[in-house]
Write a structure and sequence with these properties.
Layout lengths: L6 H8 L6 E4 L6 H8 L6 E6 L2 H10 L5 E5 L5 H7 L5 E7 L4 H5 L25 H5 L4 H12 L4 H12 L7 H11 L11 H11 L2 H14 L1 E11 L2 H15 L2 H4 L13 E9 L2 H6 L7 E7 L6
Parallel strand pairs: 1-2, 1-4, 2-3, 4-5
Antiparallel strand pairs: 5-7, 6-7
């Protein structure tokens, strides 16, 4: 069963206006979208985004609601699509980052080492190169850099070297091949964690440009918030959370702190305010859905819109 992490907490933070316009930037299987729609009246509107064709198909079959529409694209391209829809601002944006449970639990998608499957890992499997294509073509230096930057894997160079040596005689094609290779290279095991966990995360983030999309989505999203509009982001590892935290802090910094000391300005003129910092799932939710144990939620509100 698919559980939406921090479901009620994130919906409550959005402070939904019944006639508002909202964005679900990571539709998945629609858990958050369903709750948003439940609080909208007939004049409300929800626009969802997802890169995954299976998520788009699920939405088209199960969300037959005139207030709802879904776009097959990354939330990073939010501004373009809002312009096409003649929407200057929205009242709320929700991002539930990372890989979804259906993606992890579908063997042929290649996201998990729990199954022996083709190394794909693309959220949009109709576009871009697969994990296998990248692993078999990237230089040893590039492999090591990705494993270190996106997986914080301290054996990144050792693993990269082993991959290059392996592919000298045969191509890396399956999750099992890669997981077993990493397990042979890493000399110790962390309790409760497979040796390949960090490398699989790093490859997935790189293949899908997850951090690049996040940075752009945050930059565009906060600027598209209406007055009293809110952006809520749920992240699942330190790399994502660090980007969200730094971005929100930047926007929430007072105007006075961003200007030279000699400029006279009312320090209360703060356009954005952080309304949730590092909120985590409850013990009861973690017991119900183990994936929520690493979730961190942050939220920001736009207090006013300049020249509005």
């Amino acid at each position: 069963m698919h559980y939406s992490v921090l479901l009620q907490e994130s919906i409550n933070l959005l402070a939904i206006k019944p006639d508002g316009v909202y964005i679900d930037g990571t539709f998945g299987r629609g858990g958050h979208s369903r709750e948003i729609l439940a609080q909208l009246n007939t004049n409300g509107r929800l626009i969802a985004f997802d890169k995954d064709p299976q998520a788009i198909e699920f939405a088209q079959q199960n969300f037959l609601d005139p207030r709802f529409s879904i776009i097959h694209d990354s939330f990073a391209n939010l501004e373009l699509h809002l312009t096409n829809l003649n929407l200057a601002y929205v009242d709320g944006i929700l991002l539930d980052l990372g890989v979804s449970s259906p993606q992890l639990d579908t063997p042929e998608r290649g996201f998990s080492f729990r199954f022996n499957a083709p190394l794909d890992m693309r959220m949009n499997y109709t576009d871009g190169i697969s994990a296998a294509q990248w692993l078999n073509a990237a230089s040893e230096a590039e492999l090591a850099e990705v494993f270190w930057l996106y997986g914080e894997e301290k054996f990144s160079r050792k693993i990269a070297k082993a991959i290059v040596e392996f592919r000298a005689t045969q191509q890396l094609e399956t999750t099992e091949q890669l997981a077993n290779l990493i397990a042979r290279v890493i000399s110790y095991k962390e309790k409760g964690q497979h040796p390949a966990t960090r490398v699989f995360q790093a490859i997935r983030i790189h293949i899908n440009n997850e951090l690049g999309d996040l940075k752009l989505g945050l930059q565009v999203g906060v600027k598209k918030l209406n007055q009293q509009g809110r952006m809520v982001v749920i992240s699942f590892h330190s790399l994502e959370d660090r980007i969200v935290k730094q971005s929100f802090n930047q926007y929430a910094s007072s105007v006075a702190k961003q200007l030279p000391r000699w400029v006279m300005i009312n320090d209360d003129a703060q356009e954005y305010e952080i309304i949730a910092k590092k909120h985590k799932a409850s013990i009861s939710e973690i017991n119900l859905n183990n994936r929520s144990r690493s979730a961190i939620m942050r939220a920001i509100e736009r207090k006013y819109v300049k020249n509005c």
